[in-house]
Amino acid sequence: MSTFKDIFKKSFLQGFSRYDNSPENIIVAFVIAGVFSLYIFFAYRLLTRKTFYSKSFNIALAALTLITTSVILAIQSNIVISLGMVGALSIVRFRTAIKEPMDLVFLFWSIATGIICGAGLAEIAAVLAFILTLMLFVLDMLPLGHSPKILLVSATGYDAEKAVIDVVKQHCRHYTVKSRTLSGGQTDLVVEVRTASEEQLAGDVAAIKDVISSSLLSHDGEVTY
Q1: CA distance 105 to 112
Q2: What is this structure's pTM?
């Protein structure tokens, strides 16, 4: 006569053996995960417009999808392996900080896709990829704000700042002097500006008598309002 403990143990173990881990299913799961990993690879390349693109991080995203898929397949095959993996993964510590928020989004996307493919739910992974890609493209195209420009000016003498600021005021409603350096009879200015006439601003500043050089730079930092 089966006791409650035997019935509970049998039903618990059967819950981990519902998925058919046949060689065919394993190959299909890895093929599907491979397709989605390539999709994430190209999506990351298109959606991220950083100055320094990290190809190694992008490759790691694609590999992470396959690795997560293998972990989920192993967990479903045997309860002992699943408990062992929980213990092994609990001691892993990642000390590399992720500074770019979009990198964190793609990192979780890769892990989630690997889990979904390992569980045999490719339809959910396809819907996730479609909706997430569409949302990222739409949100990236929304004109929520424009990043300011950085005006770099080098001039001879210590009295050139007033002339430069007078020209900046003609083209910009808002500006901020970020840095001024006076050394060796030369003035170096860094000014944050917002203007629609970028070429004219740079040209007018360069035309000032004591100005040696005038550069207008853009950056991919956070947008302030």
Answers
A1: 11
A2: 0.61
3-state secondary structure of 148: coil
Fill in the DSSP letter of residue 215: E
d(CA 55, CA 59): 6
Measure the CA–CA gap between 108 and 90, rounded to whole angstroms.
18
Classify 176 in phi/psi space as left (phi over 0), alpha (psi -120 to 50) or beta: beta
Instruction: Express each pLDDT in 183-209 by its tens digit.
Output: 878 888 888 888 777 778 888 888 888
H helix intervals, 49-121: 55-77, 79-89, 101-118
Distance, CA of 31 to chain centre: 25
d(CA 208, CA 160): 9
